[in-house]
Design goal:
Layout lengths: L1 E5 L2 E9 L3 H21 L1 H18 L1 H12 L3 H19 L7 E4 L7 E8 L2 E6 L6 H12 L3 E6 L4 H11 L6 E3 L4 H10 L2 E5 L2 H14 L3 E4 L4 E5 L5 H13 L9 E7 L3 H15 L2 H8 L5 H16 L3 E4 L14 E4 L6 H4 L6 E7 L2 H9 L3 E2 L1 E5 L3 H10 L4 E4 L15 E2 L2 E2 L7 H5 L1 E8 L7
Parallel strand pairs: 5-6, 5-8, 6-7, 8-9, 10-11, 10-16, 11-14, 13-14, 16-17
Antiparallel strand pairs: 1-2, 3-4, 4-20, 9-19, 12-13, 15-18
Helix pairs in contact: 1-7, 2-4, 3-4, 4-5, 9-10
């Protein structure tokens, strides 16, 4: 049985559904495989119209979906409404993808004829998605997969089950074309074992297992596995602006974004003014009204326990809390936005992604040291650089390992029309989003056309 509870009110059961087990997932894949033939046969115009209609239906239910996101995953209402808007935009963006060129035409090396390349859908795309963007991430995987002619079987995180079911219901696609299989590890493993192409977003440990299973079958796979993201603040930065950006990237949606900032690196004289400004900004977010408007709860009690245990152990090892550090005494799984300094180098808060509103403040003597510290991680997804000197910022961007570098902006946030992925262990395989993902969800074929009777 799959259950999902409101993280702001743990007594509120949002949804309870039967999990299908491995056999149920296998059956869903077979139904999807049967439906895929007709879906692809609709042609570009038919698939485009279906995705456009899905976008309109989701937009028409924006208020309902906003409330559901807030209730099921604890996202602040402003961010939840923004996610619904982004979800609509993604469906509309990929509704145009069926009309994109499906290949190229080349001259043969000699003689008459044509050489063609053509992209073809794999068949069934298996998608495994997290709870933190319960509409947007399933959409930015499903919409391009559908646009190029695949059918989709989606296994959402249990904590986002209701959102995924409602998304598929509103999309209104033909039976079998977009199927939701609620479940946990068993269902996820069955999907990876049976689908023709796999896209995963989630934890590093599970992501590595997914990659191993898919590559063992010879199946294309992409995996996004989070990041230990840094922000570099130089002495010439606008400290007030940088502090505002960092506070948003640390505490926005309780830091439960793969692009959230967890390490703040202050260069030289920037340390003291930044420490003061950032601590003040995070303390303001912890105020009762701002807490629910900006931060919100963490997703469940185990997440809260992991965060509080890590903070307590860091303090016991000599760290100081400049802001926050405590669980909030109220219903729900709330913790104060937290900034720690003097955290020992070997402590997990400096080496692991904790997915909560917690960051460590680190000094660097100069930009070279700051870049070395920022790059000292196996999960380089997003790094921000804060400086008034564009030349310095661009030079830093060239030396950072991250898949995304944002200058004078929070590390959190992505543009769905551009490729998205991390470096090192933060990602595996092809990029997501933008036009790049259309290549991932298709296999390229080369076709040689020669006039009849042409000798070989």
């Amino acid at each position: 049985m799959i259950t999902s509870y409101n993280p702001a009110d743990p007594s509120d059961l949002v949804v309870e559904v039967e999990s299908p087990g491995a056999a149920g997932v296998a059956a869903a894949i077979e139904r999807a495989r049967a439906a895929q033939t007709g879906w692809r046969a609709l042609g570009a115009a038919g698939r485009s119209a279906a995705l456009t209609k899905a976008a309109a239906a989701i937009e028409a239910h924006a208020d309902e979906l906003t409330e559901l996101i807030v209730r099921e995953v604890g996202k602040p209402a402003v961010e939840a409404r923004g996610e619904v808007g982004r979800t609509v935009a993604i469906w509309r963006y990929y509704a145009q993808a069926p009309f994109a060129p499906a290949g190229e035409v080349h001259e043969p090396a000699a003689g008459e004829g044509l050489l063609l390349t053509r992209r073809r859908p794999y068949g069934v795309a298996g998608l495994v998605t997290p709870w933190n963007f319960p509409l947007a991430i399933p959409t930015w995987k499903a919409a391009p997969a559908l646009a190029v002619g695949n059918a989709v079987v989606l296994k959402p995180a249990p904590e986002a089950t209701a959102c995924a079911l409602r998304l598929a219901e509103l999309a209104g696609l033909p039976e079998g074309v977009l199927t939701i299989v609620p479940g946990g590890a068993e269902e996820g493993a069955a999907l990876v074992a049976g689908a023709d192409v796999i896209s995963f977003t989630g934890s590093t440990g599970v992501g590595r297992a997914v990659v191993a299973a898919a590559t063992g079958r010879g199946v294309p796979v992409q995996a996004e596995m989070g990041g230990l993201n840094a922000a570099i603040v130089l002495p010439d930065a606008d400290i007030a602006q940088a502090a505002a950006h960092l506070a948003a990237a640390i505490a926005g949606y309780a830091g439960q974004k793969c692009t959230a900032t967890s390490r703040v690196i202050a260069v030289g004289d920037a340390y003291e003014p930044l420490a003061e400004a950032l601590a003040k900004a995070l303390t303001g977010i912890a105020a009762p009204g701002a807490l629910t408007d900006v931060c919100g709860p963490v997703i469940n009690e185990p997440a809260l326990e992991r965060l509080t245990t890590a903070i307590d152990s860091a303090v016991e090892a000599g760290a100081t809390a400049l802001a926050g550090g405590r669980r909030i005494d109220r219903d729900g799984w709330f913790i104060e936005p937290t900034l720690l300094e003097q955290v020992p180098a070997e402590h997990p808060l400096r080496t692991e992604e904790f997915f909560g509103p917690v960051a460590v403040l680190l000094p660097a003597a100069d930009l070279d040291e700051a870049i070395a510290v920022a790059n000292d991680t196996a999960q380089s997804l997003s790094t921000s650089v804060h400086s008034r000197d564009l030349d310095t910022a661009l030079a830093a961007a060239d030396r950072l390992d991250a898949g995304m570098v944002r200058v004078n902006a929070p590390s959190s946030g992505v543009d769905f029309h551009l490729p998205f992925s991390g470096a090192k262990g933060a990602g595996y395989g092809a990029r997501e989003q933008g036009q790049a993902v259309l290549d991932f969800f298709t296999a390229q074929r080369t076709v040689t056309l020669l006039p009849a009777g042409t000798p070989r």
